[in-house]
Design a protein that fits this description.
Blueprint lengths: L1 H4 L3 E2 L25 H27 L20 E9 H11 L3 H20 L9 E7 L9 H4 L12 E7 L3 H4 L5 H16 L3 H30 L3 E7 L5 E3 L2 E2 L14 E8 L2 E9 L5 H21 L8
Parallel strand pairs: 3-5, 5-8
Antiparallel strand pairs: 1-6, 2-9, 3-4, 6-7, 8-9
Organism: Salix koriyanagi
Protein name: O-ACYLTRANSFERASE (WSD1-LIKE) FAMILY PROTEIN
GO molecular function: O-acyltransferase activity
Length: 323
């Protein structure tokens, strides 16, 4: 993405750099309350969650498969089959309204929307599959430094942000319709928040997975690392990744860029989702296995899920969650 952005300029003033949404660091929610009991509980909880999440990640790469559902064909070589792509655009202002009403993050809102829309699509095509065992593989950037660098900066000797991908996986089980409740769409947002927050704040599995990938690559080569990644993706139902795009409109060779999206290609999954913010909009792209998943119908369910969540949030009298 850095290579692409280095070729683009601000449409309003090419002499100014592109700016991106600020990344908020999560402060300690316990404040100064560091009692011995609370500290010990947090330590044991972190150790347990880390071991559980890391072992789940390893199992997903070799043996633990998701159920075959309307979003997972389980067909070998799915990455070589034709695909279909659809995109849906949401207003960031509307997403921020939901965020403020519920006291959650933007990622919680859009993740809950995607999960609910996906489950509704599954249930429509195959009644009962809305509660099947399905896992989403979230691809995370593990670079230490925030923001983007130009190609020239990345290829310099001893660059603080060198060229290359640095990522890890986060396995997120899709909330089930029977558990979250289709009649209460906000539960998908809260459930997504609960799972992601626990894995982010009370587990080091993401970093262990990243280190494990580095070790596998070092001792078994790129082929060994690729085998691990391929196995993990093949055994899960869908992949999700997101990118923060610039706040201002961009231009390529003085031609304004009206919109853009991205999606990870070549993955052994029937469904891959890419999320990108750009100039006040958030665009969700779905890439699906052609003739197995109907991309237009899936898009329609995601739009419907967002409408359900937006209406429920705006009419909700529940006080916002504490951050």
């Amino acid at each position: 993405m850095g290579a692409l952005l280095s070729c683009l300029q601000r449409a309003d003033n090419p002499s100014l750099p592109l700016t991106f949404p600020s990344v908020q660091l999560h402060a300690n929610e316990d404040g100064e309350n560091f009692s011995m009991r609370r500290t010990l509980h947090k330590i044991f909880s972190t150790v347990y969650n880390t071991a559980s999440d890391f072992s789940t990640s390893i199992l997903k790469s070799c043996s633990a498969e998701d159920d075959e559902t309307p979003i997972r064909s389980g067909q070998h070589g799915v990455e070589f089959l034709p695909v279909g792509i659809e995109t849906v655009t949401f207003s960031l202002d509307h997403i921020k309204q939901i965020k403020s009403k519920l006291g959650v993050t933007l990622n919680d809102v859009i993740t809950g929307t995607i999960f609910l829309g996906t489950r509704l699509y599954m249930e429509t095509l195959s009644p009962g599959s809305g509660s099947a065992n399905s896992t989403s593989l979230v691809l995370l950037n593990t670079r230490v430094f925030a923001g983007y660098k130009s190609i020239e900066e990345m290829v310099r000797p001893n660059a603080e942000l060198p060229w290359g991908n640095h990522f890890a996986f986060l396995t997120i089980p899709l909330p089930k319709l029977r558990d979250a409740g289709a009649e209460n769409p906000l539960q998908f947002v809260f459930k997504a928040r609960e799972i992601i927050k626990r894995k982010r704040m009370s587990s080091f599995a993401v970093y262990l997975t990243a280190k494990y990938l580095q070790l596998v690559s070092k001792f078994r080569g790129a082929q060994g690392a690729s085998k691990y990644i391929h196995g993990t993706m093949m055994n899960t139902s869908m992949g999700i990744t997101n990118v923060m795009g610039p706040i201002e409109q961009m231009a390529l060779a003085s031609h304004p860029v009206k919109g853009l999206y991205f999606v990870v290609t070549g993955a052994p999954q029937s469904l891959m989702v890419g999320v990108m913010s750009y100039a006040g909009k958030l665009r969700v792209a779905v890439m699906v296995e052609k003739d197995f998943i109907d991309p237009r119908k899936l898009k329609s369910h995601i739009e419907h899920a967002f409408d359900l969540i937006f209406k429920a949030a705006c009419s909700s009298r529940t006080p916002p969650l504490a951050n």
